[in-house]
Design a protein that fits this description.
This protein is an alpha/beta fold and 355 residues long. It has a single domain, classed as Alpha-Beta Barrel (TIM Barrel), CATH 3.20.20. Helix content is 44%, strand content 14%. It contains 16 helices and twelve strands. It has a seven-stranded parallel β-sheet with strand order 1-7-8-9-10-11-12. Strands 3-4-5 form a three-stranded antiparallel β-sheet. A hairpin with a 5-residue loop joins β3 and β4. It is globular, with a radius of gyration of 20 Å. The model has no long low-confidence stretch (mean pLDDT 97).
Length: 355
C-alpha cells in the first residue's frame, strides 16, 4: 500500500497492510534524530521512520509586524495581536503567551473595535504545488492544518478570563468564537478551492479537556462551542474529505457529539486520563470513530525501556486497530527527554506489524 492508501483504509475502518503512523516532536527531537541517524533533513527523518502523513497550510504574506496565524509555532505577535515569547525550560524552548490583547475588554464594543486579521493575509495559491512536491516519489495522506479555535480565543482573552466568560459573560466568549470560526472557515474554503482533491484530511484543533476531565461542562460546550466546531467538521465530510480534530485530555463526555458531527479521526488520545484507555474507547466507539496517538509522552516514552514501548505500541495497535481505525503516534509532541531508542522502537513496531 502507499502511505495514502494505508491511512485512508484505516480511516474507513478496514485493515491496511500495517498500522499507519505519524511522527511529531519538538525541534530539539528532530535535531537529535538527525544527528543519531546521520541524516540531513526533516524529510529524511520522516522517510526513515515511515510517517504516512504530510502537512500543508497557507503561507502568511500579511503585515510584517505579525508572525503568522498562531504564535505557538512562530513566536512573536500573531495576526490576532497575541504576543508569544520563547521560554527556555532547560531541555527545550517553547513559545508562551506573554500578552493577551483582549484581557481588559469589558464589553462587546471592545471586542468589535479590536484590529481583526484579514483572510487576504494568507496565500493558498502554492498549496497545489506544495502537495505535488510532497507526493513526488510516493503518495501520502495530505493533511490541511486549518488552525485552532479554542486556543486562539483564550490566547486573546487570557485562559482564566475566557473560562470565566463562558459562565458569566457568554456573549463575550461567543463573539470571540464566532470571529475565529468565520476566519478559519473562509481561509479553509480558499485552500480547498486552490488545492482541490489533493487534500485528504482537514485538521482542526482546540483543547477542551485536561488530565482530570473537561475544562468546562459538556453542557456549556454544546451550547457555545459545538455549533462552531460543527462548521469546522461537517461541511468537509460532505465534500468527501476526511476530518481530524485535536484535543488533549479526558473529553469522553463529548465524543458521541463529535461522531454525530461527522468526525473521522480523534487526536491524540491522552493516556492515563479518565475513560481514555484504548480498551474503553474500542468498546464504546469501534467502527464509528478512528483514533490517533495514545503512546504516553509523560511517563512511558521518557522513562520506559524499548521493551515496554514495544509492548504498549502493540496494545494500541491490537486494541484499536484490529479492524482499522487507528493511527499510531505519541500522545503529543515527543519531548527532548525521550531516548532515541524508544522513539525508533515505537515506530519500528508499527512498520514491522502486519495485520
Amino acid at each position: 500500500m502507499t502511505p495514502r492508501e494505508r491511512v485512508m483504509t484505516a480511516l474507513a475502518h478496514r485493515r491496511p497492510d500495517r498500522p499507519p503512523l505519524n511522527f511529531f516532536g519538538t525541534s530539539e527531537v528532530w535535531t537529535k534524530l538527525k544527528q543519531h541517524l546521520r541524516l540531513e533533513t526533516d524529510e529524511e527523518v520522516r522517510l526513515h521512520i515511515g510517517s504516512d502523513m504530510r502537512y500543508v497550510a497557507p503561507t502568511y504574506v500579511g503585515p510584517a509586524q505579525f508572525s503568522g496565524l498562531l504564535g505557538f509555532g512562530s513566536g512573536g505577535t500573531d495576526v490576532w495581536g497575541t504576543v508569544w515569547q520563547a521560554v527556555d525550560v532547560g531541555s527545550a524552548v517553547y513559545n508562551e503567551v506573554v500578552y493577551h490583547p483582549l484581557a481588559t475588554a469589558t464589553g462587546l464594543d471592545d471586542l468589535r473595535n479590536h484590529a481583526w486579521p484579514e483572510v487576504d493575509w494568507f496565500d493558498v495559491s502554492q498549496l497545489k504545488e506544495q502537495i505535488k512536491g510532497l507526493n513526488r516519489t510516493e503518495e501520502y495522506a495530505i493533511v490541511y492544518s486549518m488552525g485552532n479555535l479554542i486556543e486562539t480565543a483564550w490566547a486573546m482573552r487570557g485562559f482564566e478570563q475566557f473560562l470565566m466568560d463562558l459562565v458569566v459573560a457568554p456573549e463575550m466568549a461567543e463573539f470571540l468564537l464566532e470571529k475565529v470560526t468565520t476566519f478559519l472557515e473562509e481561509l479553509t474554503a480558499r485552500a480547498i478551492e486552490a488545492a482541490g482533491e489533493d487534500i485528504d484530511i482537514i485538521w482542526s484543533a482546540g483543547d477542551i479537556a485536561g488530565q482530570d476531565g473537561m475544562l468546562f461542562s459538556p453542557e456549556r460546550w454544546r451550547e457555545l462551542v459545538k455549533p462552531r466546531y460543527r462548521r469546522l467538521i461537517e461541511p468537509y465530510r460532505s465534500m468527501g474529505l476526511k476530518t481530524r480534530y485535536h484535543t488533549d485530555g479526558s473529553m469522553l463526555p463529548v465524543i458521541e457529539d463529535l461522531i454525530e458531527m461527522g468526525l473521522d479521526l480523534l487526536d491524540p488520545i491522552q493516556p492515563n486520563t479518565p475513560g481514555m484507555d484504548p480498551e474503553n474507547l474500542a468498546r464504546l466507539f469501534a467502527g464509528r470513530l478512528a483514533f490517533y496517538g495514545g503512546i504516553d509522552t509523560q511517563g512511558l516514552l521518557p522513562f520506559g525501556n524499548p521493551e515496554q514501548v514495544e509492548r504498549e505500541a502493540l496494545r494500541y495497535i491490537e486494541t484499536l486497530g484490529k479492524n482499522g481505525g487507528y493511527v499510531l503516534a505519541a500522545s503529543n509532541a515527543i519531548q527532548p527527554d525521550v531516548p532515541v531508542e524508544n522513539i525508533l522502537t515505537l515506530f519500528r513496531t508499527a512498520r514491522e506489524y502486519r495485520y
